[in-house]
Amino acid sequence: MIVITNPSFIEDEIEILHSLFEEGLSLLHIRKPDFSELEMAHFIHPIKMEFRSKLVLHSHHDLAKDFGINRIHFSEKERKNQRHLFSKFSDSVKDKSEFISTSTHSIDDFNSLENDFDYAFLSPVFKSISKENYHPKTDLFEALKSRTNYKTKNIALGGINSENIQKTLENGFDNIALLGAVWNNTNPVKEFKLCQQIALLHLQ
């Protein structure tokens, strides 16, 4: 199960992240789109070394090596509009000491991914918890019946919470990613533990 950071400031965020890792969080996507490179460095610095291998950078990818991070995420826009940059990076990770992921918003887009990607978000599955007026344009459960790409794991994103995790995993998604369910909750760690418990029951 994956957690994505809230794009904006969260009080005591690093302490909460440490608690999530201690409760078994396997991957944390750091998505702070408004951060400068310096702000991103300041954000990563206090995260304990033992958790660095579980971090995934969405921006300022050049910082990865400095902080011992071996996971990089490319947005859909980066993948499509900056193909030359992505190709250069993907060529450098062929030895699989590093991992790359991306975002997709349709099953056709997901199916057309090349084999470089370990996994890809497919969204939105449900009406977003964190984004206003962001809801599915198509039924992604129905769309998954047309899946042809089985080399890339597909990760459900968008409106995922404790009430729909089981349905999501039973209908063709390989795993889930949480954002609003965690960060819009008054007790993020408690909500994470509940969601993780439900997901593990299905994924075991």
Please characterize this protein's 3D structure.
This protein is globular. The relative contact order is 0.14. It has helices spanning 13-22, 37-44, 63-66, 76-81, 83-92, 107-111, 140-143, 165-170, 180-183, 188-203; strands at residues 2-4, 27-30, 55-57, 71-74, 99-104, 119-122, 153-156, 175-178. The model has no long low-confidence stretch (mean pLDDT 91). The protein has ten helices and eight strands. The chain has an eight-stranded parallel sheet. By secondary structure, the protein is an alpha/beta fold. It is 36% helix and 16% strand.
**Helicity, in percent?**
25-40%
Structural class: alpha/beta
Report how far apart the termini are: 12 Å
How many individual helices?
10
Instruction: Give the overall silhouette.
Output: globular
> Major β-sheet, in short?
8 strands, parallel
Mean pLDDT reading: 91
% residues in beta strands: 15-25%
Secondary-structure element sequence?
EHEHEHEHHEHEHEHEHH
Runs with pLDDT <50, length 5+? none
- Strand arrangement, major sheet: 3-2-1-8-7-6-5-4
Structure summary, number of beta strands: 8
C-alpha Rg (nearest Å): 16 Å
